């Protein structure tokens, strides 16, 4: 097992190249950048003598836990992509941390970032997730990052909705390729809240194949400069914005006419069904069956004459009278 220790740092080429006119303690105290990427490191030992450390490169190692960084109050950049991490922990003391790289690990929940009040970039792309699972976000961390985070990379994480990210109103760059987003209406609603968004990449997502996908997102993100790697022409943007404004105004006008017509003509309440009389059902039923209020029918009685009866063999005496 390889541990990152001060002795390992002492054996590094950078320290070996010095004239050794200064002690190791003096060297470590002045150290601001430390690069131990791809060194098969599994654990971080006590590095508290490196109090002025600002940038730490530990990517492409085998680290499973972040530890012993409580001393690094001046750290601004931490690179820990492609390690063996399954969770985010022990970062609360890094109050000056501005860029955090955790891509290519096995993290399932983006959490415990509440104390990182200076974080501007977060990279959690390509997590090695269990089959069928997606990367999720703790609302408390998202809320804490809402006033600082500008760049977010969540590509290749099976994400199918982004409602939880809506509070990130300071975002200027979003990288979210190779996910499962499909609801264009949801995306429009969230993006309208990100008024500072300038770069957006959603390539290789189902939503990219929706009708007028590009037009709808350009009108939703008013200052967007780059969508899926393609520059947005300002003339095209203005045309789409004006077209949408005209369309919305026409719809509002049509809706107003509909409401006015329903108010002035209460008999016409459903334009899909056609005009409907309030007593239509009663009138139609009265045609199919007699009404109890109908006038009685007239009856005519035919009376047969005496001669007609005799002709049928009925003996009718003949009356005689005096003149």
From TrEMBL:
Keyword Repeat: yes
Source species: Cyprinus carpio carpio
Pfam families from the UniProt entry: LRR_4 (PF12799)
InterPro entries per record: Leu-rich_rpt, Leu-rich_rpt_4, LRR_dom_sf, SDS22/Internalin_LRR
Keyword DNA-binding included in the entry's annotation: no
High-level lineage: Eukaryota, Metazoa, Chordata, Craniata, Vertebrata
Biased composition (Basic and acidic residues): 252-261
Sorted UniProt keywords: Leucine-rich repeat, Repeat
Record-linked SUPFAM superfamilies: L domain-like
Chain spans, region Disordered: 252-292, 304-323
UniProt xrefs under PANTHER family: LEUCINE-RICH REPEAT AND IQ DOMAIN-CONTAINING PROTEIN 1-RELATED, LEUCINE-RICH REPEAT-CONTAINING PROTEIN 9
Protein name, per record: Protein phosphatase 1, regulatory subunit 42
């Amino acid at each position: 097992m390889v541990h990152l220790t001060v002795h390992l740092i002492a054996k590094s080429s950078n320290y070996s190249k010095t004239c050794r006119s200064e002690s190791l303690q003096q060297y470590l105290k002045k150290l601001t950048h430390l690069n131990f990427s791809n060194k098969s490191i599994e654990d971080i030992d006590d590095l508290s003598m490196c109090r002025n450390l600002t940038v730490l490169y530990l990517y492409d190692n085998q680290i499973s836990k972040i530890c012993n960084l409580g001393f690094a109050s001046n750290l601004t950049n931490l690179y820990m992509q492609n390690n063996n991490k399954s969770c985010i922990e022990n970062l609360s003391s890094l109050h000056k941390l501005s860029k955090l790289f955790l891509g290519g690990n096995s993290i399932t929940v983006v959490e415990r970032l509440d104390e990182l009040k200076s974080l501007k970039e977060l990279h959690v792309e390509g997590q090695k997730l269990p089959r069928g699972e997606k990367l999720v976000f703790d609302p408390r961390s998202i809320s804490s990052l809402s006033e600082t985070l500008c760049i977010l990379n969540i590509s290749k994480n099976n994400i199918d909705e982004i409602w939880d990210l809506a509070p990130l109103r300071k975002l200027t760059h979003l990288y979210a390729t190779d996910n499962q987003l499909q609801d264009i209406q949801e995306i429009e609603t969230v993006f309208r809240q990100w008024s500072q968004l300038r770069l957006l990449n959603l390539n290789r997502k189902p939503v990219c194949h929706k009708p007028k996908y590009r037009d709808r997102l350009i009108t939703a993100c008013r200052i967007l400069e780059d969508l899926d790697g393609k520059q947005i022409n300002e003339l095209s943007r203005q045309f789409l914005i004006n077209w949408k404004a005209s369309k919305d105004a026409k719809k509002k006008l049509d809706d107003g006419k509909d409401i006015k017509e329903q108010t002035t003509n209460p008999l016409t309440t459903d334009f899909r069904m056609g005009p409907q009389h309030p007593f239509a059902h009663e009138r139609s039923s009265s045609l199919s069956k007699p009404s109890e209020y109908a006038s009685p029918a007239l009856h005519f009685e035919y009376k047969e004459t005496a001669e007609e009866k005799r002709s049928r063999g009925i003996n009718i005496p003949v009356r005689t009278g005096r003149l």
